[in-house]
Amino acid sequence: MSIEVIRLLLDFGLVVLIWIIQCIVYPSFRYYPTENLIAWHKIYTARFSVIVIPLMLGQIGIVLYQTILTPSVYTVVSLIIIIFVWLVTFLQFVPIHTSIAKGIVTEKLLASLVNKNWIRTVLWTLLFIYSFIYYLLE
Asked: Per UniProt, which keywords does this protein have (predicted)?
């Protein structure tokens, strides 16, 4: 299997995952009583981390490899998008999830989780489309 196919599979896996989170998981948090949400959130973050961390590390690893080995507009733009997703994740979402884990749950916080996640949803979707078109034209 070529590195381009692996890259495309990782991009696809992350786009599917982020749409599930955006349309199902995060909106569902508003339906839990606070105590239940805190308990579920601990389980949810542990389970999703096992899936999302390898995908994100694989994606950035392959894009770094591609950028170093064969730098192009495609690889550099991909790397910029991925770095931006990582920054948004660590600067916005880690603090939100930390608040939930600590029991600081408000309607405003849960709404911001869904609203802010559109940034990652759009970026990962655009990245997958970009990768798919690049793969087809290659």
From this structure: Membrane, Transmembrane, Transmembrane helix
The CB density around residue 40, as the number of other CB atoms within 10 Å, is 14
Domain count for the chain: 1
pTM: 0.93
Blockwise average pLDDT, block size 10, the chain, 138 residues: 95 98 97 96 95 97 97 97 98 97 96 98 98 94
